[in-house]
Amino acid sequence: MDRCAGKRLADWLRQEGHDVLDSRELGPDPGDRALLEIAAREKRILITIDTDFGGFVFQEGMAHAGIVRLPDVPSDKRIAIFTELFARHAIDLESGAVITIRGNRIRVSQSPGK
User: Fold this and answer.
1) Range of the domain at 62
2) The whole model's pTM is what?
């Protein structure tokens, strides 16, 4: 989990039984590229509010195990969004999709090579 996605969401995901690695636990911010590489190597879905990860995947072809982007979702709405994601998009999450949430719209994209 990218540090910008919030500790509250990370804590909630853990309470729900998910194995979460919060980037804060890695020490100083390793940077977005390194974070994506770590998540891919460990077969983890990356959760972020940053939009540059889409460029890494779709333009540069970087490997990943799935990405959830929350670029304009307020922190107090993120848990509700993930409740919906787990209920409606579990297969997409498991398949390594890139999921972008903007407002009430959820867009699911498969990256090249997936």
Assistant:
1) 3-109
2) 0.91
